[in-house]
Amino acid sequence: MKYLVTGVTGQLGADVAEELLGRGVVVFGTGRKSSPPQSLFGRINFSYTPLELTDETGLKKCFEKAAPDVVIHCASWTAVDDAEKEENREEVRKVNVESTRVLAKLCGDKQVKLLYISTDYVFGGDADEPYSADCTDFAPLNVYGATKLEGESVVREFLTKYFVVRVAWTFGRYGNNFVEKMLRAAAGRTSVSVVDDQFGTPTYTRDAAKLIADIAASEKYGTYNLTASGEFVSRAGFAEEIFRAEGMSVKVEPVKTSDFKSLAKRPLSSRLDTSKLVKNGFEELPDWKDGLKRYLGERKNYI
Ligand SMILES: NC(=O)c1ccc[n+]([C@@H]2O[C@H](COP(=O)([O-])OP(=O)(O)OC[C@H]3O[C@@H](n4cnc5c(N)ncnc54)[C@H](OP(=O)(O)O)[C@@H]3O)[C@@H](O)[C@H]2O)c1
After folding, report:
1. What is the position in ligand 1's atom list of the atom closest to the CA of 13?
2. What is the pLDDT of residue 261?
3. CB within 10 Å: which end of the chain, N or C, has fewer?
4. For residue 294, what pLDDT is reported?
């Protein structure tokens, strides 16, 4: 089997490519950077092509060269606040919507499976219950979420053999993620302020990558929510767990999202219901606290 994975220089794509290589399949990876991340460098069955996604001709050539059986589209504009800036909006759409459209058409023409990575940000975050995978009460609060939702729509428009997989609150080796931000913020301090009214499920990208590889290898098409298991937690609760696991005596001062000034609005509830995965025979991910512990242990080897 041959896989084309976009965004292998990013947090999730790197782990997805690594997981697939561990399963003995051939992986063509793309990213904007001139070379792949260290963990993929020189790996057997792996080749890397620097590619600007908005270059339609380049994207088509890359697809033809790879001749994949499956495409896993991890690449995306992910800078949520920058996406709000007027001067960036057209580019954000090109990356998140138009490049997805090109890929979806290519996959449709060649009967190739496409797995599109999406986000909890397609929802408005004001629901009392966790969002089910098939919930269509979309209400993105920001440009990033709106363009990811459009990406979902073009995938559904062009394909029957597709997976839309929404992840949330991810952390992994190659990301400027919440865990890293908290550890930086707490360095040399006795307290940090963290919002306590945003709720979700932190998810280690290594764990997510395993399930993404399982889904992509299946014929169980459709839309899934994919997060770790365990109780939903607030950002403040997540920060407390990070400091506890690291043995740091840092106090978390709870604050409200409305106290923070940011360009993009963020959903308060990122609680995703992942039961559709289990119903379709996929194995539930470990508890997020378990993923966090492993991440904190493993990051010491590469920082
Ligand atoms: N992080 C989260 O908490 C979170 C939550 C929900 C959903 N997601 C989704 O998960 C997926 C992966 O996100 P991530 O956390 O891995 O993000 P990331 O670390 O920011 O990685 C983004 C990837 O996209 C590539 N990329 C961005 N713009 C590009 C362009 N114009 N042309 C070519 N490549 C481009 C980047 O390439 P370079 O690095 O080489 O520039 C990088 O490989 C995305 O679809 C995102 O929407 C993430």
Report:
1. 16
2. 87
3. C
4. 97
Q: d(Cα 19, Cα 1) in Å, to the nearest integer? A: 14
Quick check: CB of 59 below 6 Å from ligand 1?
A: no
**Active-site annotation, residues:** 144
Dihedral, CA of residue 46, residue 52, residue 55 and residue 60, to nearest 10: 10
Structure tokens at 301: 């080897």
CA of 191 to the centre of ligand 1 (A): 31
214: Cβ–Cβ under 8 A, 6 or more apart, which residues?
282, 283
CA distance 301 to 296: 10
- pTM (predicted TM-score): 0.97
DSSP 8-state secondary structure symbol assigned to residue 94: I
- In this prediction, residues 181-196 reach a mean pLDDT of 96
User: How high is the pLDDT of residue 301?
Assistant: 82
Reported confidence tier of residue 69, pLDDT bands at 50, 70, 90: very high
CATH class entry, domain 2-176+202-228+272-287: alpha beta
DSSP code for 291: H
Q: Which residues pair with 118 in a beta bridge?
A: 166
In the chain, what are the helix, strand and coil shares in percent, each to the nearest 5? Answer: 40, 20, 40
Say if residue 176's pLDDT is above 70. Answer: yes
Residue ranges of domains in the chain = 2-176+202-228+272-287
- How far apart, in whole angstroms, are the C-alpha atoms of residue 289 and residue 300? 17
- Condensed to tens digits (0 to 9), the pLDDT of residues 46-60 reads 999 999 999 999 999
